[in-house]
Amino acid sequence: MTVRTALVIGGGVAGPVAAMALRRAGIDAAVYEAYPATADGVGGSLAIAPNGLAALRAVGAEDAVLAVSRPMPGMVMAIGRRRTAIPPLPGVPALRLLWRADLHRALHERAVSEGVPIEHGRRLVAVDETGSGVVARFADGTTAAADILVGADGVHSTVRSLIDPAAPGPRYTGLLGFESSAGLDVPEDDGTIVYSFGRRGFYLYRRHPGGGTEWGANLPQERPLTPAEARAVPAAEWLRVLAGVHAGDDPGAELIRTTSPDRLQVLGSLKIMPSLPHWHRGRMVLVGDAAHAPSNSSGQGASLAIESAVQLARCLRDLPGPGPAFEAYERLRRPRVERVAARASRINHAKAPGPVARLLMPVLMPLAMRTVMAPERAVGPEQRYVIDWDAPVAQTQP
Ligand SMILES: Cc1cc2nc3c(=O)[nH]c(=O)nc-3n(C[C@H](O)[C@H](O)[C@H](O)COP(=O)(O)OP(=O)(O)OC[C@H]3O[C@@H](n4cnc5c(N)ncnc54)[C@H](O)[C@@H]3O)c2cc1C
Question: What is the pLDDT of residue 372?
Fold first, then answer.
């Protein structure tokens, strides 16, 4: 059965890319996003890795993302006062830093200009599968029909539980995310990001080209908080807690002291997806965080979401019908995303270390940076990955 039409649920990162890639594969795709509009100014920043850029190239969206991002050529790991430069991978372009809202807008505009309809205010609540297609039901009472349905609806995916009601949900990493900018000017080059393992918590920072310093922190916190709970705590109180955790950290303490509460963004409890038994069922399939959300420590969530969206389209282009295409897609993607998730989970242990690990970190980290965490070994296979859009996907047996 040839797939001609697709409903893509979710207009974040994976959704618009999946729709663009599907259209290039000859499949008419429309995106349905729950939120009434693109969320300007919220959600903090993120980095797109070279492999994410390469995948965007396959759908003609690389330039749109380059235009709203800046390069991050230098990286430094700091443990207390000890600093280790992380050498760039030879021949690989720099990571690109951008605001999440800008990424969403760039992908949205690109998709619309390619002819993808994007409808806002359409929250999927149920799916009926018929013999020949799917009917999506939205919270506003409307419906839409197509040959297949792609769940690009993020870490709290509805499509995931429609595919498998027993599917595990996202797991809390034990860390609460914050982002802000401080008045302090740190003595770093523009474009250098410093990953700093403080005495009791991880933070990162980079000089803002216009003055001041942008920073983010991962606060170890036993109990996950809902976004509403986290935001109900006054920003000044969160800054007080962060100041306690980073007391004695240089420049962490000073960054927090020179941050005004109205600039603090509470990103909320950081979640990951454990390995999912089923990525697809019948005519429904998952892409992006809905299937494989690695921790934010990987710096790869969005890039992997983009890759998966492109690979799904290639499989649907080349294989006969949703069943064989979804199986090939999962075989192509699962090992890669699980390797990235495993690396990120090792970093998370270092971000919230126990007392013994904290003592050993200054000795172990530099050693690890020369061995298991050496850039080529740790992130080379992630960042050097380029999808060959034109190469046909073979239907291999599991
Ligand atoms: C603090 C933090 C920092 C991060 N930093 C990085 C980084 O530096 N680099 C990186 O690559 N990744 C990073 N990530 C991860 C990255 O944000 C995600 O991997 C990426 O956004 C996944 O894209 P997605 O499209 O799968 O999901 P999302 O971007 O979450 O999009 C899902 C969309 O689906 C919509 N939706 C949900 N339910 C429904 C429904 N029922 N009906 C219709 N629509 C629905 C949502 O409103 C949303 O717009 C970070 C994440 C966090 C939390």
Answer: 65
Task: Return the residue whose CA atom lies nearest to atom 37 of ligand 1.
Answer: 153
- pTM of the predicted model over 0.85: yes
- Ligand 1 pocket (Cβ < 6 Å) reads 9-15, 32-35, 44, 46-47, 123-124, 152-154, 158, 177, 267, 270, 288-290, 293, 296, 299-303, 305
Token look-up 């890669």 returns: 336
User: What pLDDT score was predicted for residue 358?
Assistant: 66
Show Cβ contacts of residue 314 under 8 Å, excluding neighbours closer than 6 positions. Answer: 21, 25, 387, 389, 391, 393
Q: From 259, 255, 205, select the one nearest 97 (Cα to Cα).
A: 205
For the segment 175-219, what is each residue's pLDDT rounded down to a tens digit? 999 999 999 999 998 889 999 988 888 999 999 988 999 999 999
Q: What residue ranges define each of the domains in the chain, with the CATH number in brackets?
A: 5-81+96-170+273-351 (3.50.50.60), 171-271 (3.30.9.30)
Q: Report CA(89)–ligand 1 centroid distance (Å).
A: 27
